[in-house]
Each structure stands twice: as structure tokens, then as C-alpha cells.
Design goal:
By secondary structure, the chain is of the alpha+beta class. The chain folds into two domains: 106 residues, Aminopeptidase (3-Layer(aba) Sandwich); 127 residues, 3-Layer(aba) Sandwich (Aminopeptidase), CATH 3.40.630. Strand 2 and strand 3 form a beta hairpin. It is elongated. The relative contact order is 0.16.
């Protein structure tokens, strides 16, 4: 008998044992990463961790979902990020049962930030997913010099308590949730109303550290003082390079940094949200501190 069931915390050890047995590329050596991914800081008890494939009562497959609630366009939206799709090769023909069940969960959007080539083709062809990004922007501390004078009136702070005191409730939640995951948060402000919060993470490639921007709360203000952001983040974190996925910096008036092509695409499925509505927060890349 084959069935698909939602997974909650009480089945976490069983899921880990199955994933380890199937030789997942990360988790067999790092159970702490698996626990961080499944029991993420903002998780609500009613949200399943994902779905399991049961064959005669034995767990033979799993697909994870990282849920979050976001204020977008003045409304609260639930988003689900697909992750960790693992199936025993003997039952690979039943893999789509897991995916189909996961996509039935009530959600305003689903994302996949780390699809393999095969999963990418499947999601795009058969499940109405579309690309969020095909490229990213590469910046240095000297990028954005056009904003040098317009940004002089802005002050910057990396102090979380100071940031929380100046931003709205939605931004407070974002700042707390991602600071708990090790992300950096910086705020540019001029008075009480003119504020822009940026969330970023520090990564490394070939032993060279760099920063990735994950969220920009107000793009208009950001463009007014982007040189200040780039310079301060680079100096504070001692990184020579900053990157951001292309949709975060899209503008008809301002062109920032050097465009580079991605080796894989981030994907979205939604009838209500556009690609530019969804940033790079609340996903497995944040939790595992890997590039999105």
C-alpha cells in the first residue's frame, strides 16, 4: 500500500534516518543542518514540515516545505518553499505523488531556490512554475557612486535594537527571524519616515568572502543611498564583493553593478504574486547559509 502523509516534528527522526540511508549530499554528515532546516525559527506548529511517501508503512520518500507569512501589497500571504526532495530509487516512479500532495497545501505561492536540472524542467513544463531570475548583479564598495550626494543625508545602523525601533511590524519580524539565522541587517534612515532596511548574508567562494543582499524594504530609498549601503556592508563585513539577484535591483532609471548569468534559475508558482514581489528571504539558502 502506497500513501502520502504530512510530516510533523514527531516524525523528524524517522525522516532523517530515511534521508541518511539514501545518502543525501549534506545531511548524513550534518544532522544539525537538517534540524535547522526542518525546525526553522519562524515555523508555526500547524505547518507541516513536508510530506512522506509511505510504502506498506515504511517511509521511502520525503519532500520538505518551508512556510512563511509575508506582508506583500498590504496583504498577508502564505508562501511555501520546496526543499529536500528525496526518494528511495526503488520507488522513484512514485516521486510525483509527493510533489503533487505538497502543491495542494493552501499557499499563495510556491518557490524552489535550488532546483536540479531535472526538477527545473519538470516544474516548468508540468506544474506552472516560472523563472524568477536568470541573472544577478555583482557590486563592489565603489558601486553606486551616482548616489553619493543624494545619500549624504542618510545615517546607517547595524544595531538590531535601533533598527527594530525605527521599522514597521513586518520589517521587525523579518529582522528578528533572519538575525536568528545569522544574517546581517542594516538600516538607512533620515528622520522617522524615510527608512530602508537591507538583509544580507556573508558567504564564501574559493576562500573569498562576499555578501549577498536578500531583501530591500524600500527600493526607492535604497537607490538614493546605495553607495552608502555597499560601502558600509563591505567595510563592516570585510568583503570585497556584493551580489544580489537581479529582480531585487531592477529599475527603469538605475542600473547597478555588473550583470552575470546564473548557472541555475530560481522558480516561482503563483496566481497572485509577481516575481518582483518575492525576495530571497525565508528559504533553505538562508537557513543553510548557502547562495540563492
Amino acid at each position: 500500500m502506497i500513501e502520502v502523509q504530512p510530516v510533523f516534528l514527531d516524525s523528524l527522526e524517522q525522516v532523517y534516518a530515511m534521508i541518511r540511508e539514501q545518502g543525501h549530499w549534506v545531511f548524513p554528515q550534518r544532522k544539525d543542518l537538517f534540524d535547522r532546516l526542518m525546525n526553522y525559527p519562524w515555523r508555526k506548529p500547524e505547518w507541516p514540515l513536508g510530506f512522506s511517501l509511505l510504502v506498506d508503512g515504511n517511509m521511502e520518500g520525503f519532500i520538505g516545505i518551508i512556510f512563511c507569512e509575508r506582508m506583500i501589497g498590504g496583504r498577508c500571504h502564505t508562501l511555501g518553499n520546496l526543499t529536500t526532495w528525496v526518494v528511495n530509487p526503488k520507488y522513484r516512479s512514485q516521486s510525483l505523488l509527493l510533489l503533487s500532495e505538497a502543491l495542494k497545501v493552501k499557499s499563495d505561492a510556491f518557490t524552489d531556490f535550488t532546483p536540479t536540472a531535472n526538477v527545473y524542467r519538470l516544474l516548468k513544463k508540468s506544474y506552472s512554475f516560472f523563472d524568477m531570475d536568470s541573472g544577478y548583479r555583482l557590486m563592489t564598495p565603489l558601486s553606486g557612486l551616482s548616489s553619493l550626494f543624494s545619500g549624504m543625508k542618510y545615517q546607517f545602523t547595524f544595531e538590531l535594537d535601533s533598527i527594530l525601533a525605527r521599522v514597521d511590524l513586518a520589517s521587525q519580524r523579518i529582522a528578528r527571524d533572519h538575525a536568528a539565522c545569522g544574517c546581517g541587517v542594516v538600516l538607512a534612515y533620515c528622520g522617522q519616515e524615510d527608512v530602508c532596511m537591507v538583509v544580507y548574508q556573508i558567504l564564501s567562494s574559493r576562500n573569498i568572502p562576499y555578501g549577498q543582499i536578500l531583501h530591500i524594504s524600500d527600493k526607492n530609498i535604497f537607490f538614493k543611498c546605495m553607495h552608502g549601503f555597499f560601502l558600509r556592508m563591505a567595510l563592516r563585513e570585510k568583503v570585497p564583493i556584493l551580489i544580489a539577484n537581479e529582480r531585487l535591483l531592477e529599475s527603469e532609471r538605475v542600473h547597478v553593478g555588473l550583470r552575470k548569468t546564473r548557472s541555475y534559475n530560481i522558480m516561482l508558482r503563483s496566481q497572485n504574486l509577481r516575481r518582483e514581489d518575492v525576495d530571497d528571504l525565508y528559504n533553505e539558502c538562508v537557513l543553510l547559509n548557502i547562495r540563492s
